[in-house]
Amino acid sequence: MAATQKIEITNLKYRTLKDRVIKGIIIAFSLITISPIILIIYKLIEKGIRQISFDFILKTPPNTFEAMTAITNGEIIPGGIANGITGTLLMVLLASALAIPVGIVTGIYLYENPGKFLANLTRNVSDILQGVPSIVLGLIAYIWVVKHITNGYSALAGSVSLSIMMLPMIVRSTEETLKMIPQTIKEAALALGVPYYKVILKILIPTGFSGLLTGILLGISRVLGETAPLMLTALGSSIINFDISKPTSAIPLLIWEFYNDPNMVDLIWSSSLLLMFIVLTLNIISKQIASRTK
Amino acid sequence: MNDTSTHIKDPVLSIRNLHVSYDKGKYAVKDVSAEIKRNSVTAIMGPSGCGKSTLLRAINRMHELYENIETKGDILLNGNDIFKMPTIELRKMAGMVFQRPNPFPTMSIYDNVIAGYKLNGIRMKRSQRDEIVERSLRDVTLWGEVKDTLYKKGTFLSGGQQQRLCIARALAFDPEVILLDEPTSALDPVATAKIEDLLVKLKENYSIIMVTHNMSQAARISDYSMFMYLGELVEYGKTKDMFTNPKDRRTEEYLTGKFG
């Protein structure tokens, strides 16, 4: 009797210790997981913040010579990335305009016809589409739009490649959101004699609105930073361009251009900081919307 | 068929040889014929899976929303074939209340009551709408509780209030028949008692058909009862008669708790 009790006490000590060690390991790994984002933000702010000013948002980039002069004089590089900001805005808006209606309607179709062959096919293809490398989507947009529609690099081509990236995310989030709406709500509307299309427009979409919005915002924040497909489609431009048939710049394209110019390296950090800021803001907003409606 | 020959003069509903199948050849409702008395409460009882909800949902053609469900037979509402009516007309005349309260979550209490008109694009004057909302909410004894919060979301109400709101939504159309599918099974006893009182009061102006799992509820508030078993209408008659002197052995066994 006494012996077993003793064993239990030593066991207990050992177990408490083990418990603590494992707790410590878990916390350590969690910290490792969040450290990249903290380090990234820290670095971007440290290196980029001094370039941020009204000029940075309102002006186009300087040429290499201007940048070199500024650096040798110890000043900050003049100019900004207005062409990138407007280009990103233009292309993301256009991509959303293309992807949102198609994505939501497809999502509704999947939700309404869960077992149908065409729905299953669409769902699987959409999942596969999500895994297609973005550069391949760029190539496709190049062949379709650059070669045959705009006959040259264009914002439209960039938007098409981005919209194909957004599409599967919107389809999936629409379907998942609608699935979460209780069937009884739909039946309640139908039991009032409401026609089918109105049930979708006036009941399902408003009820799932925040879920749909979350999917859209996440889709947008996903394509904001895409570089590879834009290199093959929008190419880039040193001026502010709102013509969708002309080459257009974007923030990630500018970051790539600055990277290739030794005099412009400082601008990488501030551009990245701005891009990161936009993406984070969108993410936080969509998280807020999602949590508020749960 | 068993004894379902309860004769009712000027019935609000006549169900004739109704069959409903979910899978081809497998009937959830088998050859049910019954006449439903006007301005009374008719309870449909039976063990789970006996087809009572299926029968109820056939009356406002909810089954048409699902492709694999097939309905045969006739249902006459005030003598008119329901399968020949436009669904909106039918569903205006036969309002439905579901098991779980299901107010539209994006709408205010006011909009929930008037939803049937709004969603069907029926336009009317503001004063007319106010009148319908007030009448419907008074009918379900909810007016006093919500008259100051009409523009708050319906989902903020308690479960029992939500269910009364859903009844008000059905009443807004001034229907002939109200179909209730176990309307109190998700509610606590106090809320249940309120709904039961309400149904007894509502039968002055409406004909009520209610599916219930709860025998004592059927005994308390219904005038007529149907007992269904395995898709068949086993027995149909005055509730008093059925509970005191069931004609069929299966009804008796169910009522005495031998199965169900």
Molecular structure report:
The complex is a heterodimer of chains A (294) and B (260). Chain A has 294 residues and is mainly α. Chain A folds into two domains: 51 residues; 212 residues, MetI-like (MetI-like fold, Orthogonal Bundle), CATH 1.10.3720. Chain A has 13 helices and no strands. The radius of gyration of chain A is 26 Å and the shape is flat. With 260 residues, chain B is α/β, with parallel strands linked by helices. In chain B, the strands form two sheets. In chain B, strands 6-7-8-3-9-10 form a six-stranded mixed sheet, with helices on both faces. In chain B, strands 2-1-4-5 form a four-stranded antiparallel sheet. In chain B, helix 4 crosses helix 6 and helix 6 runs parallel beside helix 7. Classes of the chains: A mainly alpha (294), B alpha/beta (260). Chains A and B meet through helix 8 and helix 9 of A and helix 2, helix 3 and helix 6 of B.
CATH superfamily of the largest domain in chain A: MetI-like
How much of the sequence of chain A is in beta strands?
under 5%
> Which class best fits the helix and strand makeup of chain A?
mainly alpha
Mean pLDDT of chain A: 91
SSE string of chain B, helix = H, strand = E? Answer: EEEHEEHEHHHHEHEHEEHH
* Portion in beta strands of chain B: 15-25%
How large is the radius of gyration of chain A? 26 Å
- Write the CATH homologous superfamily of the domain at 13-105 and 175-255 in chain B: P-loop containing nucleotide triphosphate hydrolases
The overall pLDDT of chain B, averaged over residues, is 91
Which shape of chain A, going by the Cα principal axes?
A: flat
Return the CATH architecture of the largest domain in chain A.
Orthogonal Bundle
**CATH topology type of the largest domain in chain A:** MetI-like fold
Walk across the major sheet of chain B and give the strand order.
6-7-8-3-9-10
